Amino acid sequence: MRHLLNFHTHTLAKDESENSIYNLMIQDAEAVNNVRHQWVSIGIHPWYASATDWQSQVEVVSEISRLPWVLAIGECGLDRLIEMPLDTQMKIFEAQVALAEHVQKPVIIHCVRAFNELLGWKKKTKLTIPLIVHGFNNNSQIAAQLVQHGFYISLGGALLKSGSNAQKALTNIPLHRLFLENDDKDISIFSLYEAVALKLGISISALEAQIWRNFATVIPSVAPFIP
Ligand SMILES: [Zn+2]
Fold first, then answer.
1. Which residue of 105, 183, 216, 222 could cross-link 156, Cys pair, CB 3.0 to 4.6 Å?
2. pTM of the prediction?
3. In the Cβ-directed half-sphere of 77, how many Cα atoms lie within 13 Å?
4. Cα 42 to averaged position of ligand 1 atoms, centre (Å)
């Protein structure tokens, strides 16, 4: 049985052999004890951020972020397609990043049409924690800029669409900065590893091993538990 890391998913693990980070949404935060058998991330997704009461949402994230099975903060970030102004979104995002820095856990980032803002922010921010842009499906130039500024990039289902941005960007992402995820899609994580291995001309097991190494780099506390 293969043990492939699924870096970001909205689907609960079926059993303990599944190695995934389950994305717990802020509105489901009280369920955090029900998912203690698996790895979890918690964050305020921009779609569910409260314009009037985001501070108390941040407090909930703060409490939960200390739990040992909560490995990361997020997904959180910036989304130009929603109503909330980007500067408000940025405040909410920054509050979560500060929290992540405090507990020394990485941040899983949702970014839609706001890469200039994200890169501009990163250039003036000093952080010690890793930042991972998830579900990336933008052009190769943005991928290269993210890599240059220290981001990790997690690719998802778009990899399976021929000619997609994610497919084209793959060669601009060094293997030591890459993760794979099925996100909210009903696709097997194996199909993504297979597609990447084929495209890069490497074996699935070499890819698997590299992605586990990346995981141990961004989340050193799990290194002893890695298959
Ligand atoms: Zn997601």
1. 183
2. 0.96
3. 26
4. 11
